[in-house]
Write a structure and sequence with these properties.
This protein has no helices and eleven strands. With about 130 residues, the chain is mostly beta strands.
């Protein structure tokens, strides 16, 4: 079992940056792949970025490539999402999630994410 707590959200102007953090409890953090999801009002939740247990494999949705960076520090039981060049379309509640299994890609399938944080609001003003 792992518990997740996100932080770092807030209000930022378009073109600005934020870094989200997700602190995990439990000694097995390094065994989990981690993902950042977001959900905007009236839209479905989408996977934004994912990272495997070692940090050696990552995934980004096309809309955030070259702007967002996911990373993890297993010694600190924390996963990060560095978000640069933010725009209004990035406004959403951001959630981190943990998955114990992996799919064929070396990262979890979305259905494998079983532990979720409470979410942190990111609002980008234009």
């Amino acid at each position: 079992q792992v518990q997740l707590v996100e932080s770092g959200g807030g209000l930022v102007q378009a073109g600005g940056s934020l870094r989200l953090s997700c602190a995990a409890s439990g000694r097995t953090f390094s065994q989990y792949a981690m993902g950042w999801f977001r959900q905007a009002p009236g839209k479905e939740r989408e996977l934004v970025a994912a990272i495997n247990w070692s940090g050696g494999r990552t995934y980004y949705v096309d809309s955030v490539k070259d702007r967002f960076t996911i990373s993890r520090d297993n010694a600190k039981n924390t996963v990060y999402l560095q978000m640069n060049s933010l725009n209004a379309e990035d406004t959403a509640v951001y959630y981190c999630a943990a998955a114990f299994g992996l799919g064929r890609s070396g990262l979890p399938e979305i259905k494998m994410y079983e532990h979720w944080g409470q979410g942190t609001q990111v609002t980008v003003s234009s």
